[in-house]
Write a structure and sequence with these properties.
One of its GO terms (molecular function) is ligase activity. With 359 residues, the protein is α/β, with parallel strands linked by helices. Helices cover 31% and strands 31% of the residues.
């Protein structure tokens, strides 16, 4: 079995290590962020002192937005398959701008696509517009999380318009943000995927070539060439989620006219006062309020209700106003029973909301 190497999670270091595993000249590796707490989580998940499973080029850790991170084993074939399928969907290889951390799968795959395309990636330093202006490829791509897109729509609109395609992933893209981008002439493509699927594998509801999607009841199942090989040193968990070649995700969805619509996580349906409440639906409704800039809705254990629906909101509307607003289109029993007003939602480096910081 191979030995796993830890490398600094900087773009240059990850690009060198990635080039090595893709051309066969370098050892399997795990990128480690500079933040000491995050680095320790990566080391625990990657376990570099233990023998490495077969068919692994890179070990990435999940974001840990809702629990302890897991080490995800990604093979060279899975990384390349994801890159090639992405280029096919977008209209051909191109030059990529990296505005994300390369120790998460979204950032790593920007570098993989660059290596596969034979083009040098452009690294974001301070200014998104200045970085975009240095690009020389005939086709120009980037990827980012919804929060970045919302920010750049305000500050770097011309630069966004200069890209042939911008992949939006890492978190659900609010409908209002999709509309803003389209009306501004920005080609933003929402992607669904995760570390276990080698980054986004479904673009705008349509699976990439080599990927199949199915449902077990409402649970999203994914099969294809971009799937991970397993969880690091967790064969039981691997066997639980990888069955007959299908990855059993923790997400709920539905197929509408052949397109996948992601509804939310399996555990995003809570029972509050004996009523099933779909938290992402409540969250989506809150985001439609004119005075709500951002929001997340969580279920919190409660002695009276079983689970209390709590909203964390960037904006000033009162609890009573938001409850009435939700009840206009959803059952009043779904309305949040508690609201916390924040200046900004706490975010992980992956671009996901840090739910653990809110609870």
């Amino acid at each position: 079995m191979s030995t796993l190497h830890l490398v600094p999670g900087t773009p240059d270091a990850v690009l060198r290590a990635l080039t090595g595993v893709l051309d066969g000249s370098g050892p399997p590796f795990a990128p480690v962020p500079a933040d000491l707490a995050a680095a320790e989580r990566v080391r625990r998940a990657a376990a570099p002192d233990r023998p490495l499973e077969d068919d692994c080029a890179v070990v990435l850790t999940t974001s840990g937005s809702s629990g302890e991170p897991k080490g995800v084993l990604l093979s060279r074939d899975a990384l390349v398959a994801s890159a090639e399928a992405t280029h096919e969907r977008l209209g051909g290889p191109g030059q990529w701008l990296l505005p994300m951390k390369p120790y998460f799968v979204g950032g790593l795959q920007i570098l993989t696509r660059s290596v596969v395309a034979g083009q040098s990636p452009v690294l974001l330093q301070d200014s998104f517009s200045e970085a975009a202006a240095t690009m020389t490829g005939s086709r120009r791509y980037t990827a980012m999380v919804p929060t970045q897109l919302a920010r750049y729509l305000e500050t770097d609109l011309d630069a966004l318009r200069s890209f042939d395609a911008i992949i939006i992933g890492g978190a659900a893209t609010p409908a209002a943000l999709k509309t803003r981008a389209a009306e501004a002439g920005v080609t933003a493509i929402p992607a669904y995927g995760m570390t276990e699927t080698g980054s986004g594998c479904v673009y705008a509801g349509q699976p990439l070539t080599g990927t199949s999607v199915d449902l077990d009841d409402c649970r999203i199942l994914i099969k294809g060439s971009t799937l991970f090989s397993g969880y690091r040193l967790q064969p039981e968990l691997t066997a639980e989620v990888l069955r007959d070649g299908w990855f059993r995700t923790q997400d709920r969805g539905e197929l509408v006219d052949g397109q996948l619509k992601v509804i939310g996580r399996i555990d995003d349906v809570v029972i509050s006062g004996g009523v099933n409440v779909t938290l992402p639906t409540v969250q989506a409704r809150l985001l439609e309020h004119a005075d709500v800039k951002d929001a997340v809705v969580l279920g919190v254990p409660d002695a009276e209700w079983g689970t209390r629906v709590v909203a964390y909101v960037v904006g000033e509307p009162s609890l009573a106003e938001l409850r009435d607003f939700v009840a206009e289109v959803l059952p009043r029993t779904w309305a949040p029973r508690e609201v916390h007003h924040l200046d900004a939602l706490p975010m992980l480096a992956s671009g996901k909301v840090d739910r653990q910081a809110l609870l």
